[in-house]
Structure prediction request, 794 residues.
Amino acid sequence: MRCRLRIRILLIATMTVPAIPIALAAQRQNRPVVIASKPFGESYLLAEMFSQLLESRGFRVDRKPGLGATEIAFGALRTDAIDAYPEYTGTGLIAILHDTLPDSVAADPRAVFAHVARRFANLYRVRWLPPLGFQNTYAIAVTRSTSSRYHLRTLSDLARESSHLTAGFTADFIGRSDGLVGLSRVYGLRPRAVRPLAPAVKYQALASGAVDVIDGYSTDGLLARYDLVTLIDDKHFFPPYEAAALVSSRLDSQVPGAIAALTLLSGRLDEKTMRQLNRRVEVDGEDVRRVAGDELVALGLTGAAHDAQAAPSAWKSGFVEYLWDRRATIAALTVRHLELVAFALFAAVIIAVPLGLGLERTRRIAEPTIGALGVLQTIPSIALLAFMIPLLGVGVAPALVALGLYALYPIARGTYTGVRDADPDAVAAAEALGTTPTQRLLWVRLPLAAPVIMAGIRTAAVITVGAATLAAFIGAGGLGEPIVAGLALADTRMILSGALPAAALALAVYGILAIVELLVTPAHRRKRFWRRRTEGPDAIATPAA
Amino acid sequence: MPISLAARNVSHRFGNVVALDDVSIDIPAGRATALVGESGSGKTTLLRCFNRLVEPDRGQVMVGDKDVRTQSPVSLRRGIGYVQQHGGLLPHWRVLRNVELVPTLQHMPDSADAARRALELVGLSSAQFGSRFPHELSGGQRQRVALARSIAARPGVILLDEPFGALDAISRAELQESFDNLRHDLAVTTLLVTHDLAEAGRLAEEVVVMRKGRIEQRGSMRDLIRAPATDYVARLIDRARAGLEALRA
Prediction:
């Protein structure tokens, strides 16, 4: 029964690939302290300092660096999916609370902190720890030559000349009321064009003249590197952006020791120090762990050189060497990536194949149903991932659900059309000769549809490998993690250390599933399959006379 | 054992279209009957009532001495041979396995032998063709395999729905001849649907002319020619004759 063998291969193929063990169950009890960051250099650095500080005091820490942006990180904190991340009071005031304060209050960092801390405690039961000691406000920056050419010194100057200028802003900034929206309202800023840029590339874009003005942070290491001019906020539009640890109610109520440890950093970091630290990470390409560790030692908060594992990520060493140094990390990330893909795909197959078979029996609702799945596909992956946070928090679970939802469409479509179009004459004859519906399905429809179903699964697998890189934005790990971190830290090699394995993985998955597809192709078509590959399309129609 | 067929006051509609309008017919065991008519005349619908591919709105359909509704469609169909216009061979199964289908469904202990014998009966060597895939055969050979599949489990009745309709003239004539011999050898009841009056006359002892869901006339080909019951039957015969004469000229 070769046909059964092929069905078995099809089933095994769809079931064993994902059978890599993974402990999904989030341990609510006794879980480590989850420290997150947003996807830019300083946030990584502060989160790493939080983490090392806690570890030095004996806490287990789970790092979730690079969470999407403010909405995702704060959403995760509110639902106790994470325990702490570095945030800025101005962001809390405007982007989260949407509060406007009288000018006299808004200009006073202490008053803003008090307001924000009180409101967060009341509204979200989330606590701001005392500020770390520095402000990091938005720095709207232009090159020195642009500044002298248009006589730009203040944001009012910029607004006056803005119709000649192209802005390159981060997506976060474009959408925020304390970003472009507010600048347009208060200053009348109307750039000729606004290009959304990833944080990592905006400095290069400015230096190369692709854009004329960018949003930076006042403590960015790159402001100095590119010799940029920061324009003065002459209307005091930006509120104070004091950095502080924002902690979840869970941590606040259940792990007071961790709160005490984190508070040790309050008031200890000034702007000059922060700029230097950022510079070491963003300009010199030093490893975040090392920079964070050095600073904690310098502040006398931890003992010396505890983290021998951190590989130096200096620019000088070659790329291959860099990859080799990080091989253990890359391997672990690849395994996690595969787990994400495999589980999401497995779940999608379990749902979409029976769905496709069911729709073939109830064809009236087939197209609307598959169309609805297709609509899911049009939701940008990052948005779909973000939608999951209120429901499932951050980490692996929401990523699996989102990736699984993405994979449904190609598999359901392949199954439905494959089974529907499987040789109608053969199906009709099998029925007329007394086969049961199950026998028709197993003997005729599935074997004939198998290549089409497998093609759907293959498409879904490749899409999932790609989309899974975005899962890093919601803390699910995988090869997206170095990509997100590399983008945040402007570290091309770090980006490539995630992107290249991800691309290789996509090709490998594609190739392996192509072989599976060949194995499940019915014998009568397999020969033609080869002939088509070797002789071109004319060779397909060969009825023997 | 040949089995008789009967339909009593059978009516059926597809939506608003009347496919069968109070049709009654008896087909004695062992006889060959042809249902002739244009598309839409109801001939295929009537044929499909006997193996419950169509469940008529009204009337009674008998296979042997049993109402078809008293049997499950699956077991009913396993006892009735069936050949359709495009043979409907399973393309991923080799010839022998295709022919073995019904014997396997009936759990016959020697199903492979039955399949081989059936292939020889339709004039195909099982050694030469048994291990081929359908796409490796000519159209005529494929219909022979379909015919072999329909008789492999030795049913008492075979239903044929335009079995030779898609073949070229020479394959068609050859296959008609094989079929004629075969059915006499097997002494099986056959019900043949065709739009070709000449084919009907050649293969069937009784011809039933259908039109708009009703039976216009039934009788031997000779009866029809000698005394067409309606204008429609007369026209049908004239047309078939004109076709033959055009060939002679």
